[in-house]
Specification:
Elements lengths: L36 H10 L5 H17 L3 H51 L2
Length: 124
């Protein structure tokens, strides 16, 4: 059986008169890079035509990750791509939503007028 010996040193005054050096770590929180995550989440939930909102959300998350590790250039690149995708998702979402509503109204009016025509021809 091996016995271990532990030595405990008593803390006291420093042994030498050398000046004490301090280390300062500056953590830079660069909030100048927007990651557009809220806009991407909105587009993912409400304007997700062609899955552009989801892709924009993925790039926003990548931008936030790059910003957290200090890679500002990478964060700006991903944020720029997320912004472009969000713009396209919003524009396509608005146009396609309005277009779908207009097409549905025209289809409803056509079906209603056809139903009235059939009723008149049958004598109702």
């Amino acid at each position: 059986m091996i016995k271990e010996e532990h030595e405990v040193a008593m803390l006291g005054a420093p042994q030498s008169q050398a000046p004490v050096a301090t280390t300062v770590i500056n953590i830079r929180s660069d909030t100048a890079v927007p990651d557009h995550i809220v806009w991407s989440l909105f587009n993912t939930i409400f304007m997700n035509w062609c899955c552009l909102g989801f892709v924009a959300f993925a790039y926003s998350v990548k931008s936030r990750d790059r910003k957290m590790v200090g890679d500002i250039t990478g964060a700006q690149s991903y944020a720029s791509t997320a912004k472009c995708l969000n713009i396209w998702a919003l524009v396509l979402g608005v146009f396609l939503t309005i277009g779908s509503i207009v097409v549905l109204v025209f289809v409803f009016v056509a079906v209603y007028s056809m139903a009235l025509e059939i009723m008149r021809n049958r004598g109702y």
